[in-house]
Design a protein that fits this description.
With about 475 residues, this protein is of the alpha/beta class. About 40% of the residues lie in helices and about 15% in strands. The chain is globular and about 85 Å long. The chain binds nicotinamide-adenine-dinucleotide and uridine-5'-diphosphate-glucuronic acid.
Length: about 475
Amino acid sequence: MQELNDRKINKVCCIGAGYVGGPTMVVFAEKCPDINFHVVDINKDKIKAWNSENLAKLPIYEPGLDKLVKKCRGRNLFFSTDLEINIATADMVFISVNTPTKTKGIGAGKASNLMYVEACARQVAKYAKNHTIVVEKSTLPVRTAEVIKTILEEAQDGFNENSVKPTFDVLSNPEFLAEGSAINDLSKPDRVLIGGSNKVAIKMLSSIYKKWVPESKILHTNLWSSELAKLTANAFLAQRISSINSIAALCESTGADIKEVSRAIGTDNRIGSKFLESGPGFGGSCFKKDILNLVYLSSHFGLPEVADFWEGVVKMNSWHQHRISRLIVQKLFGTISGKKIAILGFAFKANTNDTRESAAIQICRDLLEEGANLIIHDPIVEKTQIEIDLDKNDLSTNNKENKIISKYEGSWDFSRNIGSVFLDAHAVIILTEWDIYSSIDWISSSKIMKKPGWVFDSRLVVDAEAVKNANLKLWRIGDGT
Ligand code: NAD
Ligand code: UGA
């Protein structure tokens, strides 16, 4: 085995060019010009988009990302589909692939599907030469590092007594970036967490971060604490949102105002003011998946009460989304059949093109089920993505030509032009807090809407007075006043 103590990291390979792998390696490359970063993915289209000359075509929309890609790509940052050569020549390999919830088999609906992580471990075992530090960047169930280690050590083909067998260290280094603020989060992290036992490997990974993160912010733990801390952080953040949304419902019934309640509790230092904004329910690829994973692990380790406690956070989120759909129907005289409704925002939050688990998906589906005609606007999300999200599991063949069609085909349309969505709309529903929605000209919008016209603001972004002055009715989340 090669001596690690005096080795420097020259080349890093990151498997997975998604929302985490891409921006993370872009920032690493900017901060460490002396190291080469190679981001690899099996998805050819994604790699092509990362290599696109036109920076507007990068596969991920993230403020500030394009400038950094322009600066580093081709210098010390490379995107490719060639896993073999890039793994073989790397000193360190990050695993940053997706870890979705299992849809079938043992633990379906809760446990993480680790097939992509296992595939990565097998690829590293197959192609690595010499000593390789393998870093878990994906969010993983506790003790996954054990699985990765076993695969790395036992799944190597083609080595006999005369050839040099590669060796490995496994570290956990979960990512805490939030989409929409990824570049800032990566550049100024609250903390960097590194779990592991081999001091030299930990030192080598720390040496990358130390180039821009103060040492006091680089926390070292054992592997299992690091893996569990990531799931716990997401569970705590999501729990705050379910908590505030549950209180929003109570505000609406009692005459209280959720903004005032949030401010009142958030000024208590022990509670803190962040993550207390009531909205349409949390979305994003991770909160639900990671809590369900925690639920599964708790049950697996014989702790049903712990499992029930955390499952409540997800149940509250789902109830909250349906609650919003129901109250929209009630306010529009109990029927929305054939009524045109404008949906403002489809991304799960502002400043991202990601729609995974967006509250908009559930709420739009609920309204379509009630027979509404939707006109959906989002400044960044593509129509094709909305099509996929609304159609998921709902394709039908019940038409004359026996052609596969979407259940909701013809019931919704998309517009990139916000000015065009108000015509003949009975209601406008704000689901994402994009800046442009706070400066809508409600007087001119109201003139072309049906009357009574409604504005449903689930993000508390509109100027209430302006809406009321435009002769429109207004519902705001958590506003019981
Ligand atoms: P993603 O779906 O955007 O990207 C994952 C990429 O991995 C895909 O492009 C896929 O093609 C690729 N991939 C899968 N298997 C592969 C293989 N064997 N070889 C090469 N490429 C492969 O996922 P993401 O949002 O980047 O999330 C990745 C992990 O990071 C997840 O575990 C997630 O929980 C965690 N995480 C995500 C965020 C976030 O904001 N999205 C934040 C922190 C942590
Ligand atoms: C979240 C965490 O914030 C990150 O630390 C973590 O790394 C990431 O998950 C992950 O593991 O994937 P993200 O999902 O990108 O990041 O975005 P958040 O800002 O956390 O928002 C999640 C959802 O909660 C959004 O739908 C957002 O609108 C909602 N939210 C957030 C609220 O409704 N109210 C709030 O006060 C804050």
